[in-house]
Amino acid sequence: MEIVEGPSVSVRPDRHCAGIRVVTPFRGMFAVRDELMGELYEWLDDRGVDFGPTFFRLHVVDMAGSMDVEVGVVTDKPVEGDGRVTPGLLSAGRYATLTYVNHGRRANRALIEWVREQGLTFDCVENPAGDRFGCRYEAYLTDPRSERMKTRWRIELAIRLADEPSTAGTP
Fold first, then answer.
1. Secondary structure in 3-state letters for the chain
2. What is this structure's pTM?
3. Does the structure show a pLDDT above 50 at 171?
4. Where is the GyrI-like small molecule binding domain (predicted)?
C-alpha cells in the first residue's frame, strides 16, 4: 500500500448521492461491489445524470455475518431514484481521511491507528448485529471504468468522527 495523502481530519458538508444498497456476506462483498457499480453506471448513463466519484459505503459491518453495503456516486443535486437505485446523502461532519493506492485493509488499519493516536473516536455504534457507522466510505478517485487494474486505483478512505464534546458553558 502506498499512502498518497493524509491521514488528516476534514470537515465536510452534506453531499447528495445515488446508490444501490444490499446486504451480503463478507466474502461476497467485493464481487457485489463490482456488479453494483456496473448496474449503477448503466442507470446513470440511461438518465444522463452527471456524477462525481464512485464510493463504496459500509453501513453495518459484521465480518462473521452479513455486511450492509452501498455502491453509490456523488451527484451535484438530488436525483429521483427508481428500482434499486435510491437517492441519499453522505452526511456532513468531521471525517478522518486517508488517500491510498492498493490494499485497503492496510489503509484501514493505518487510519484507525492514527485516529487512536490523535485521541479521536469514530461515529460508530458497536453492537452484536454489527458495527453501525455514521458514515464510512471509500471514494474511488480513479474511475474504475477506465482503469481495470484494482491495484492502481487511487482511493480515499473516509470515516465520520464522533461529534466533539460541547464546551458551551465552560470557562
1. CEEEEEEEEEEECCEEEEEEEEEEEHHHHHHHHHHHHHHHHHHHHHHCCCEEEEEEEEEEECCCCEEEEEEEEEECCCCCCECCEEEEEECCEEEEEEEEECCHHHHHHHHHHHHHHCCCCECEECCCCCEEECCEEEEECCCCCCCCCHHHCEEEEEEEECCCCCCCCCC
2. 0.84
3. no
4. 12-161
pLDDT of residue 129: 72
- Total Cβ atoms within 10 A of residue 61: 19
Q: How confident is the model at residue 165 (pLDDT cuts 50, 70, 90)?
A: low
Main-chain phi, psi angles of 100, to 5 degrees: -145, 165
- Decide if pLDDT at 166 tops 60: no
Residue type, 65: G
Most distant CA pair in the chain, distance:
57
* Alpha-carbon gap, residue 41 to 78, rounded angstroms: 16
